[in-house]
Every structure is written in C-alpha cells, then in structure tokens.
Amino acid sequence: MFPQLQLIPGAISEILAASAETKTLTLGDRYGLLAAVTNEELDEEERRAVDRLLRAYQRGRIHLAA
C-alpha cells in the first residue's frame, strides 16, 4: 500500500513564489505538486497556480533542480 500524500496548507503559493524567484523546482517542490495534483479538495485558485507552474516548466521558464 502506498503512503497517502498530504498537502501542507499554503504550500502551492510558497512553491509558486520560490520558483518565480529561483526559476527552479526542487525535489520537495515536485512532491508538493504531486500531492496537489492528487488532492481533490483544491480550490480553483490553487488549481490555476499548479497549472501555471506546469506550463512554465513546459515552456522552459522553470527548470528542475538536480
């Protein structure tokens, strides 16, 4: 059985702010996004923030930290 991922309140806005500043997504950020994507209780604003982060990665504006 897989452990259940729990999203920390305010994590998405923190990931969004940190990635805007550093232009990278850390491993912790990626796990936070994974928890966010699997969470069915996200409000519309949080969903849009996750979409913006994923779109920024697709377009090469944000890179993955090694």
Protein topology:
Blueprint: H1 11-22, E1 24-25, H2 27-38, H3 44-58, E2 63-64
Parallel strand pairs: 1-2
Helix pairs in contact: 1-3
Could you tell me the radius of gyration in angstroms? 12 Å
Main β sheet profile:
2 strands, parallel
Strand content: 5-15%
Distance between the termini: 28 Å
**H/E element order:** HEHHE
* Secondary structure: helix percent: 55-70%
Class from secondary-structure proportions? mainly alpha
Q: Give the number of helices.
A: 3
- Outline type: globular
Average pLDDT number: 87
Describe this structure in words.
With 66 residues, this protein is mainly α. Helices cover 59% and strands 6% of the residues. It has helices at 11-22, 27-38, 44-58; strands at 24-25, 63-64. Helix 1 (11-22) runs parallel beside helix 3 (44-58). The radius of gyration is 12 Å and the shape is globular. The N and C termini lie far apart (28 Å). The mean pLDDT is 87.
Structure keywords:
66 residues, mainly alpha, two-stranded parallel sheet, 3 helices, 59% helix
Task: Report a brief summary of the structure.
The chain is mainly α and 66 residues long. It is 59% helix and 6% strand.
